[in-house]
Amino acid sequence: MKTALSVAMALKYAIRKAVANHAKGKNFSRRSPLTMETLIRLLIGAEGGSLDKILYTAGIKVTASAVSQRRAQIDPAVFRAVFDNFNADCTDNALFRGYRLLAVDGTAVNLPRNPASPSFVQNEGIPNGVNQLHVTPVYDILSRTFADLVIQPEPKKDEIGALVEMLKRNTFSQKTLIIGDRGFESYNLIAHCIEKTNVDFLIRVKQSRSAMREVAKLPMMELDCTIGFTITTTQTNEDKKNGYIYLQVPKKSKAGAKTRRGRWDFPSPYPMRFRICRFLLDSGEFETVATSLPASFTLEEIKELYRLRWGLESAFRDWKYSVGMVNLHGKSDVFAEQEIYANMTAFNFASRICREVVVHRPKEGIYAYKVNFKMAVMLCREFIRTPKADMDKLLLDIARYTVPIRPGRQDQRNLRVKGFPGFVYRVAA
């Protein structure tokens, strides 16, 4: 109860601090029901219905047009500050053998179609074009919260560059393991992880002909070995004689999406050394990962750590559908950025509150139970919108809605392109 109250207070002060540090100028200078703090709280507590319905539920007697005009006066950086302040004031200290586990991946957020926007992407697969923002977050697997994120227009998405940016701007006070899939296989990224204090990496790598040279030489069998090589950005006779791996660094002054895998931010030559672990899956296929974890972590533990990365995929599903990121309440890219930060803040708030809920297992039940996160999000948002809401009641209400934990269940992913749900097709109830 005490911790849950501290989470609620942390969100309250995170919003106030962000508003106080924002230079308002002439905006928000006159009296209005829509103060900046009210508007930020409204968007964090907003559900997927129409804006008129959200305003009615919140008891704010203004038009949807007035909300849009007010939103245009707020920089997305204010919502970013709320997200950062809230994370800084909360403690997410769940560890695996002394490591904080951070998974990284990217996902697209669909926007209303606007060919004039930087987010517009059109190719042979999408002849009519769509608008998308690409979000690359790092996700605390054990605490079930988003720790940081980078937002990019889909045509300029760069997941490796986004992770490098997050590594540079964060200080890791405790040992941290970055877990990524094959999209993060990069010599430059691995070097950044090696050079960053208190950071280790666990990244799935290719194992075919397109694999790293030293990985391609390994036999296709379960293994756990250390490889060493040297990266160079020159092609001198001495480099070739020593067997250095040549990395063709683009000469462009500004890196683009097509040059991301050839980037190199370190001296040349640069020696590298790390573990390669290959394990057999239940499907009969092999999976190969590169890691800087010490030998005290067994092959089975490495396999389990990479399996835990799937928690980020589940978090994306909850963020988009339980929290409602698929149902934006504005047309512009700026409005979408605001809601990305607002919805991630709402996700983190619900996750932290859920950790404080006591779930009882039925005496004759065969399954353990966990909180129904979709219902928890709805109840938490009602709490955020309601002045002087009762925390005891919130925790008891969340505990009423549970779902069984069924370990080992698997289902084939049905990947397909999804469009933006139009504003006139929102459910009213």
Structure write-up:
The strands form two sheets. Strands 1, 2, 3, 4, 5, 6, 7, 8, 9, 10 and 11 form an eleven-stranded mixed beta sheet that branches. The chain has a two-stranded antiparallel sheet with strand order 12-13. The chain has 14 helices and 13 strands. A hairpin with a 4-residue loop joins β4 and β5. With 429 residues, it is an alpha+beta fold. The protein folds into two domains: 163 residues, no CATH class; 212 residues, no CATH class.
Short characterization:
Helix content is 37%, strand content 18%. The chain has 14 helices and 13 strands.
The number of domains: 2
Total strand segments: 13
Q: DSSP helix count?
A: 14
| Gross geometry | globular
